[in-house]
Amino acid sequence: xxxxxxxxxxxxxxxxxxxxxxxxxxxxFKVGDKMFLLMDLESQPLKFSAxxxxxxxxxxxxxxxxxxxxYHMNKTHWNTISxxxxxxxxxLELIDHSYDLVFKSLTRRVKEEILKN
Length: 117
Known about the structure:
Number of helices: 4
Shape: globular
Number of strands: 6
Distance between the termini: 29 Å
Radius of gyration: 14 Å
Number of domains: 1
Strand order of the largest sheet: 1-2-3-4-6-5
Strand content: 25-35%
Order of helices and strands: HEEEEHEEHH
């Protein structure tokens, strides 16, 4: 998968914004002003960090060498995923899971506002 494909997929989700709050190479996607995906645009192969349920994270890290604890993030809740060798549908599933986790954590008012638009 390419960075632009991931970017377009993320931006197609309700309430998602993008920006470069940390530096000019780390693209951050947020929903309700909370991060759900960070993508290093200069990494080769392409890598991104996403949230995951802690129990699922353990399983993912055991099954896939491309998935590790996220650098500079809470490794219990964040994984870094190297897309090289992973099926695109699986990569999208990881993105969906991260978005859903963050969306569920938003206040009812923020969720309703996002769904209204």
